[in-house]
Structures are given as structure tokens and as C-alpha cells.
Design a protein that fits this description.
By secondary structure, this protein is an alpha/beta fold. It is 38% helix and 24% strand. It has nine helices and eleven strands. A nine-stranded mixed sheet has the order 1-2-3-5-4-6-7-8-9, sandwiched between helices. The chain is globular and about 45 Å long.
Amino acid sequence: MKKKVLYGFAGLVLIAALLLILRGCLYRRKNLNFVYDGAYYWSNNSKQFSNWYYENSASGHQYYLYLPQKYIHDKDNEEAKLPLIVVFHGSDEKGLAYSKYGRIFVSEKFQSRIYPEGAAVLVINSRINYFTDPHGTGLLIQNVCFRNKCIDRKNIIGYGFSQGAKFVVELCCEWPGLFRGVVSGSGFYQMNFREIIRALPVCFYWATSEDDKGIFEQGSSTGKRLARFCKNSRYVQYQTRHHFYVELQDKTGRKNRDGSDETFLDWICEVVK
């Protein structure tokens, strides 16, 4: 009798150990081997204004890259380890991409808190009026990192609004290991079970509004699942904010260690650091 009890206990311990090992494997972030591709690396047209670079890659992608002042002429400094925020605009917003959404992440409020040396910001324009081709866009991000060695390839955050929010989640599923965190404002991508399992190591910030008809119904269920299963993730649901993008002062509904209300800025700083 005692042997049966001992064997049963040993079996439970073994099962528990196996479950812990499995959990550790599922939540361990995969290292992505970045891929060099000349079409996404080389630029046909390049301009600099202030801390921004405008590039038109040979692949036909147009983007704006912001670097903190210290690294404008020191892009090959691999010791910098700058986090990278990649921004995706909504449909028909190419003209507002870097002036509307880029400004969130180049503000003094953000740059002074996100990291000791600040952060790089990559604003990508859609090739048509909305984003397509997650594979090619992933290659573009990787080759921007090749061109700017001051960027930390393991510390990339994707941020999107509306169709850009849908796309950045799709991109995360296409390239597991590319993003450390993903931010979806009014997004509507519906992840299947396999995609959620692959995305478990990613930190998600998912925000929707109940009066955003059509978007809320599609996006809220995925956001709730990610907040439940993905580490350090947040799901924020509003009643009357309609179609909106995530801003620094937005509150998550949680408390910081000092008792203050946690904001999106607090969350993203924690994820990056």
C-alpha cells in the first residue's frame, strides 16, 4: 500500500516537473536569426532632416527612422543597444504616419523615460493605402537593424492603430521572435490557437472600445486571451472611446508598485527594460 502511495506521489511529481519544463519552453523567447536581403537593405533615395532619416528602399518600402541625437553620426555603435519602436499607421494615413504617431515616441516625455540613451523609432508607410505582405515587412525591419547597429535586435516593440494594429499582430505571427512587445489600438486580428501558442513569450498591450462597432467584436476576444496567457500583457476595454490609438497617458487599470495608476508609458518602459 505504501509503495503504491509512493509511486503515485512520484508520478505526480514527475508530471508536475514535466509541466513546468513545458511551460518554460513555451514561454522562452525564441531567438530570431535575422536575414540579410539587399532589396530591403539598400536605399534608392535617402534624406535626413533633424533626427529623422527618410529612406526609399530598393524593395519599394518608404520609411522614416528616428535616432537620438547622440547616435545620428554613431549608427554603428553596437554598445548602444537602443530599443526600437516600429509604428504602423491606419488605412489611408500615410501622410500622417510619422507626424501623428511618430511624435508619440520622439517626445521628451517618452525618450527621457524609455531607456538611458533614448529609443530609435521606425515609422513605416504602407505600400498601398493599407499594410500587406508581413513577410516582406519583417525583412525590412531586420535590414534596417543591419544598417543601424546601434539598435538592439532583441528589443523591438511593434505599435499599430486600426488596420496597422491588425497588421502588426499578423507580423508578430509571421516572424516569431521579432518583437518583444506588441501594441494594438483598435485592432481586429483574430489569432488562432496555434498563433497564440507561438506568441506566448510576447508582451501584448491590446485596447478596444465597446462603441467601435465591428472592430470591438473581432478584436476583444483575442485581446482577452492574450492578456490571460501571454506574460506581462494587458487588455484595456473602454465603453465610449470609439476608434482610437493608444497614447502614453492611457491607464491600464492596474497599479504600479508605488500605488499609482499604471499607464501605457509605465507598461512599455517595463517591457523594454
